[in-house]
Design brief:
This protein is mainly α and 349 residues long. Helices cover 65% and strands 0% of the residues. The protein has four domains: 3-123, no CATH class; 134-173; 183-260, no CATH class; 268-348, no CATH class. Residues 124-161 form the HTH myb-type domain.
Length: 349
């Protein structure tokens, strides 16, 4: 089908399709459109966000079955073919003959590209190598001086994943300050976040900046936008004196403070109400796994706070009140809280 028709048809399944490049649309039309229509017939919606445990297991199954069919002897060879130049032509031929794209995405209602990236993350042995040694840090600095930010090349030389080397270099190069945040640093951080979110908004919807300029409130942006992943290495550069992880932690702290508006949400009667609401909302989701929960929506259960705040309160609930919680599944923990603790909390209230 032609490009405009493909974009129109994909819009039913992917609301942000207008922001996707023409070349990606062409690939999605070939790899995803038929799959999405089949899932629709079954009443299954296309998903984004974090992969569930069930989806991870399905990817594992798909990869193992493809290896068995083709005789390729490892998932690393299948998913990181460029690491094996002598086998490259054979592997590419087997992938084509046995319909690699269709097989790897079987049973998973997500865009093929996201499934492929998830599989690469799951099966990359370079993802799980622990702390960097002093020698590795020196090598990383040397390679970055030689190749700039070509993290793909550097990751191959270091036998680490792209993300790992990029983030580690970000930490190494920063003039790191481990003391308390100064007022100036905090203001720099807030300005940096504001700037990158403005930039994102402007690229996605130029009209939204008008309402942003007219707003005089502290919360200068729709709170849902503040939960979205932010480019922390870019923010780190703008702050100058802290590395990206510190910036992220400090921003979450600022966000919680601002959105909670100083309320003591977890004390006295308010605390009981918050626990009751959170347990009820979690039970109503019917989720089998924590990754299936929309934590942003649940934030309303205990007040206008970020998702991390809600997740922390749930963790405290299960640790404090659910015996042997480590041996229970997510749904068993929710059932226990609903059946055993909810009546107690309601009686106390």
């Amino acid at each position: 089908i032609d490009l405009d028709t493909a974009r129109q048809e994909l819009e039913e399944f992917i609301p942000h399709v207008k922001n996707i490049s023409d070349s990606s649309i062409k690939k999605m039309a070939g790899r995803d459109l038929t799959r999405f229509k089949e899932f629709k017939k079954q009443g299954i919606a296309v998903k984004f966000g974090r992969f569930t445990q069930k989806e991870n297991q399905q990817i594992q199954k798909n990869v193992e079955e493809f290896l068995a069919i083709t005789g390729i002897d490892s998932a690393e060879k299948l998913l990181f073919t460029s690491r094996y130049p002598e086998d490259k032509d054979t592997i590419h031929r087997l992938k084509t003959e046995h319909h690699f794209c269709e097989k790897i995405s079987e049973g998973i209602p997500r865009p093929w590209r996201l499934i492929y990236y998830r599989a690469r993350k799951m099966f990359d042995p370079n993802n799980y190598k622990g702390r960097y040694t002093k020698e590795e840090k020196e090598k990383l600095k040397k390679y970055q001086a030689l190749y700039g930010n070509d993290w793909k090349k550097i990751s191959e030389l270091m036998s680490r994943s792209n993300l790992s080397v990029a983030m580690k270099f970000s930490e190494i190069k920063s003039a790191i300050n481990y003391g308390p945040w100064t007022k100036e640093e905090t203001q720099k951080l807030m300005n940096a976040v504001k700037e990158v979110v403005r930039k994102k908004l402007q690229s996605e919807n130029p009209d939204s900046l008008l309402s942003l300029e007219q707003s005089n409130t502290d919360l200068w942006i729709d709170r849902e936008l503040l939960y979205q992943p932010l480019p922390w290495t870019e923010i780190e550069t703008k702050v100058g004196s802290r590395y990206w992880r510190q910036c992220k932690q400090k921003w979450n702290s600022i966000l919680t403070s601002k959105l909670a508006r100083g309320q003591q949400l977890y004390r006295g009667i308010n605390g009981l109400k918050a626990k009751i609401n959170l347990i009820k909302r979690l039970y109503e989701t019917g989720a089998e796994d924590a990754s299936e929960v929309n934590w942003d929506e649940l934030s309303n259960a205990i007040g206008d706070v970020p998702r991390a705040y809600v997740q922390a309160k749930f963790y405290k609930l299960k640790v404090s009140f659910v015996p042997l919680w480590k041996r229970r599944t997510f749904s068993e923990i929710i059932d226990y809280l609903y059946e055993m603790k909810l009546p107690e909390f309601e009686e106390q209230l």
